[in-house]
Structure formats: structure tokens, C-alpha cells
């Protein structure tokens, strides 16, 4: 399930490539985004799994102490397609100076309100990632977003443009497999686990395709980790990439 939808051209004018229908879909969910039993309940279950990977990747990339409470202290972080801030807030608690960008103004408004309510100083901006003059960041995250954009090649190039020298990019996305079509689209929508119309299976990206997109943007992809599900474990990091996966990327 996507956190949000946003895309960017790489031309100097920052051409508009956000899919309006996708932005409207996710913006309509802004009101109850922080309700763990609401329409974004699946994201609340997915977020701790992502964070487990993110924390390990941060520690490995910068040689941080695994016991440190703020391994991102003194570093900047950008979450692209931030929704209402489910990932931005943990990144801020890890010490980062955080910016969240999203296509839907409803989402950034909800994110800013929630951050203020819990005492976190996070900058939220609605708009086209390639068109925003926001500089570069040590950490760039993009969770369940690339499958929603109008131009995946241009979008990845825009993400790479936001990455500071020596920086780390982390992405997660559903894999395009028969298993994901059955479970993440048909079954999940039929059972009400995600809102109808959230996923379009044809837009899912395989690890091989993502590796190529990243390479075209001058980035090297790390070894992907699957995000699987079982009745006993629930959502968890796995060696099985069939449903969903998460990866790091750095400059080649």
C-alpha cells in the first residue's frame, strides 16, 4: 500500500507528472491516516518492519552504534511520498532533520498537525519532487511510492538528484508477481485490508527493473530483502521477495 504518490521530471522546469487521480485517492485518506484501525491500518503494521530495515541500513552505512538512540543526529533526511508522516516521525526521533514531501496537500497538512501535536519539528511540503528547491539530503526514503508515479524513470532520477554525496537511498515497493496480484490486490481489497483502487498490479516493479532504473540514475542497488507475511509472524523481513521488498541504493 502506497504512502503517497508523487513523481518528477528531470527537466529544468520540473514538469508536472503527478497522477492527479492517485493524489486524490491518497489525499482522501488523510483524515484517518494516523488511526491504526482505519483505512491505513496496513501501513501501521508495515511501518515497524520497514523501520527494522532502515535502522540496520543506517547503522551499516554510517557505522553507527546499534545501541545509539539517535544514529541520524546531525544528518538530514527526506521522505518522498510521506503521506501523513508515519515514517518521518520515527526518522526525526532517530535524530534527523526531516523533510517530508507529498503530492497531496491534505496529507502534508495532516502530517504537520500530527507532528506539532507530538512535539516534533518536521518540515512538510506538498508538490512535485523535481520542481522543489530543497537541496540534497543524507538519507532519502521512498516507501510504496514508485508504483504510483506517472514516470518511474524520471522519478528515480529525481530521487537520485536529492541524494547528497555519500548519502543513502532506501526504497520499498510491491513486486510484480502472480502472488502479489492475488494477495496484495485482489484479496487485500476484497477483504477490506486496503481501500479499493490503491494498487494497480501492472505498475508494480520487479527487483531487476528497479536495479536498472537505479543504475540509469547513477546508483547501485544493494541486496533486496523481502517483506513477507505468515499467520504466525505477521509482516516480517524475509528472503522471499514475491510480495514486497525493500532495498538500499548508493552512488555508483
UniProtKB/TrEMBL annotation:
Top enzyme class: transferase
Catalysed conversion reaction: a 3-demethylubiquinol + S-adenosyl-L-methionine = a ubiquinol + S-adenosyl-L-homocysteine + H(+); a 3-(all-trans-polyprenyl)benzene-1,2-diol + S-adenosyl-L-methionine = a 2-methoxy-6-(all-trans-polyprenyl)phenol + S-adenosyl-L-homocysteine + H(+)
Protein keywords: Methyltransferase, S-adenosyl-L-methionine, Transferase, Ubiquinone biosynthesis
EC number: 2.1.1.222, 2.1.1.64
Taxonomic superkingdom: Bacteria
Pfam families registered for this protein in UniProt: Methyltransf_23
GO MF entries: 2-polyprenyl-6-hydroxyphenol methylase activity; 3-demethylubiquinol 3-O-methyltransferase activity; lyase activity; polyprenyldihydroxybenzoate methyltransferase activity
Biochemical pathway: Cofactor biosynthesis; ubiquinone biosynthesis
Binding residue positions for S-adenosyl-L-methionine: 50, 81, 102, 143
Keyword Transit peptide carried by entry: no
Name of this protein: Ubiquinone biosynthesis O-methyltransferase
